[in-house]
Design a protein that fits this description.
- The structure is a single chain.
- With 148 residues, the protein is mainly alpha-helical.
- It folds into 2 domains: 53 residues, no CATH class; 66 residues, no CATH class.
- The protein contains 6 helices and no strands.
- The longest helix is centred in the last third of the chain and has 27 residues.
- The radius of gyration is 25 Å and the shape is elongated.
Length: 148
C-alpha cells in the first residue's frame, strides 16, 4: 500500500480520517479535517510498520466473530429457503465408516465430480440471490452457456 493511501486510513477511534467515511470520530473537536491527523501512525517515518490501522469491527458493531458467523448463516439459510430453527447438521445425518470395496460406494473420481457440481450449483444459487438482493441484473453469460 502506498504512503498516500496510508495517510488517509484511520489510525484510532479519535482519528480525523474517519470523516472521509462519514463517521464522526470519538471526542471530535472543532477544526478536524481528513488527512490532518497528528497521530504517530500518519507520520512518514512510521508508515508501513506493522500494527492495527483501524478499529476492529467488534468495537464499532458490538458483534463478536460468532455473531457475524451467525448472521451469515441465517442469511444463507434464508437464501436457500431453509428455516434457521430446523435440525442442525448433527441431527440430519448419520455418519458410519464405509468398508473398503463396498459395492454401493461410487469411485472416488465420481464422488469428487459430483461434489464439484454441487458446489457450482450452490454458488450459482447464491449469486442469483445476491443479485436479486442488490437489485442488479444477472449476467447474460449464463443464458449463453445454456444455449451452447
Amino acid at each position: 500500500m502506498s504512503s498516500t493511501a496510508l495517510r488517509y486510513e484511520p489510525c484510532s477511534p479519535t482519528c480525523s480520517n474517519w470523516l472521509r467515511y462519514g463517521v464522526q470520530p470519538k471526542n471530535a473537536k472543532q477544526g478536524q479535517a481528513p488527512g490532518r491527523c497528528r497521530g504517530k501512525a500518519h507520520k512518514p517515518e512510521h508508515l508501513g510498520y506493522a500494527g492495527r490501522r483501524v478499529t476492529v469491527s467488534r468495537k464499532w458493531s458490538n458483534k463478536t466473530l460468532t455473531d457475524h458467523r451467525a448472521d451469515r448463516r441465517a442469511w444463507a439459510l434464508e437464501a436457500l429457503g431453509l428455516s434457521a430453527t430446523e435440525n442442525t447438521d448433527r441431527d440430519r445425518y448419520t455418519w458410519r465408516p464405509i468398508p473398503p470395496g463396498d459395492p454401493d460406494l461410487p469411485p472416488l473420481g465420481q464422488r469428487l465430480l459430483a461434489e464439484i457440481a454441487n458446489r457450482q450449483r450452490w454458488r450459482e444459487l447464491m449469486a442469483e440471490h445476491q443479485a436479486r438482493a442488490d437489485g442488479t441484473d444477472l449476467p447474460a453469460t449464463r443464458d449463453q452457456e445454456v444455449a451452447a
